[in-house]
Amino acid sequence: MTLTSIGPANRTPRTAETHPLTWRLREDAEPVWLDEYQQKNGYAAARKALAELSPADIVAIVKDSGLKGRGGAGFATGIKWGLMPADDSIDIRYLLCNADEMEPNTWKDRLLMEQLPHQLIEGMLISARALKAYRGYIFLRGEYIDAARNLNRAIAEAKAAGLLGKNILGSGFDFELFVHTGAGRYICGEETALINSLEGRRANPRSKPPFPAAVGVWGKPTCVNNVETLSNVPAIVGNGVDWYKSLARPGSEDMGTKLMGFSGKVKNPGLWELPFGITARELFEDYAGGMRDGYRLKCWQSGGAGTGFLLPEHLDAQMYAGGIGKVGTRMGTGLALAVDDSINMVSLLRNLEEFFARESCGWCTPCRDGLPWSVKLLSALERGEGQPGDLETLEQLVRFLGPGKTFCAHAPGAVEPLGSALKYFRQEFEAGVRGSPVETRQSIAAPQI
């Protein structure tokens, strides 16, 4: 997987000053191993953090930078770190990296782990110092075979160089890091389900409170951060808060840069590091190149299968949480999907809800029973066998499975695209009630994960 670019991307070379996440990438897409990473200023921020900064200093820097979680929820990283206990007598703490990237249409963390494994390791080392965590785990999606291999090699390199293990760089700080591959469940992306799975338990979300910062893995204080989030930490510590804030576009309430992408029948599908606040239109037209010849943009999702559908007129929204929120959905992972005019929304939603229903842990009734119910109704509409009242039942399910109605955020994310599709494309659902089976230019298979 490589970063691709056209238009303005060709006139904006990746540099350490403008592209902190991706400037070290090789043109041949080969991994950047330790020697090359250090030649490109790698581990300089870690050396600074261990020699010159206290844990409280690092937390304050990250908090002041405005860094937010990059996994989709967007919670402020510094505030999350601040929830860890201040009591130094609690000497067993854990840092977990959430690398269970199973959101359909999302592949950004895979790029970082496969090609820049040391950047993630450095980010975890600095973060562990801030959190006073002596052990870390990278909870990795089991299907990411290349990422697992590259991360394990990079960890071995770092340990041999004295950058992991005991008394790192003579600082007196100890940190061990391990890769743990999961068995392939979408629900493991929820941090407490991830913790249960790491402990060898069934991957069900836990009741909160207590939050992981108080009672996490094996009952000890635990912080869980996303791959892209942790990969931002070295640049923030190395270059400072003001520099990091300056990267975002005017008007953005989110700071720094973000890995963003566009897939679907666009001319140049790809992944780019771009400043928060860039408009979706720039991402779609200047980077992704617009739709392929013969296709028209029907609608789009802003960041993964669990975000609502938006219309072409929403492309002028700025790509940050508040900007996308103004047009009715969430930014999510920032990897957008273009839906073309050959796709019927009933078939697309049946496909999505099948995935979400399959990945439900079954812990709470609304999610366990509601999502399969939506699949049955959508399948009937797709065959032209829908009954009067089916659309109203789907709308009820959207409400009953919405935020605050279920044990975790799985079901609310699952029904968000359904609610938006019913809002914008109701006539396509009504056609299934009238007895007209859905016809599309192409079949839609279940998501390949």
From TrEMBL:
Domain of life: Bacteria
Ranges of residues in domain NADH-ubiquinone oxidoreductase 51kDa subunit iron-sulphur binding: 346-391
Biased composition, class Polar residues, residue ranges: 1-15
Keywords: 4Fe-4S, Flavoprotein, FMN, Iron, Iron-sulfur, Metal-binding, NAD, Quinone, Translocase
Cofactor dependency: [4Fe-4S] cluster; FMN
EC identifiers of the protein: 7.1.1.-
Region (Disordered): 1-21
Record bears the keyword Ribosomal protein: no
Entry's Gene Ontology molecular function annotations: 4 iron, 4 sulfur cluster binding; FMN binding; metal ion binding; NAD binding; NADH dehydrogenase (ubiquinone) activity; quinone binding
Catalytic activities: a quinone + NADH + 5 H(+)(in) = a quinol + NAD(+) + 4 H(+)(out)
Enzyme superclass (EC): translocase
PROSITE patterns: COMPLEX1_51K_1 (PS00644), COMPLEX1_51K_2 (PS00645)
Gene3D superfamilies in alphabetical order: 3.10.20.600, 6.10.250.1450, NADH-ubiquinone oxidoreductase 51kDa subunit, NADH-ubiquinone oxidoreductase 51kDa subunit, iron-sulphur binding domain
PANTHER family: NADH-QUINONE OXIDOREDUCTASE SUBUNIT F (PTHR43578:SF3)
NCBIfam families linked to this entry: nuoF_fam, PRK11278.1
Assembly and binders: Composed of 13 different subunits. Subunits NuoCD, E, F, and G constitute the peripheral sector of the complex.
Function of the protein: NDH-1 shuttles electrons from NADH, via FMN and iron-sulfur (Fe-S) centers, to quinones in the respiratory chain.
Family stated for the protein in its record: Belongs to the complex I 51 kDa subunit family.
Name the UniProt record assigns to this protein: NADH-quinone oxidoreductase subunit F
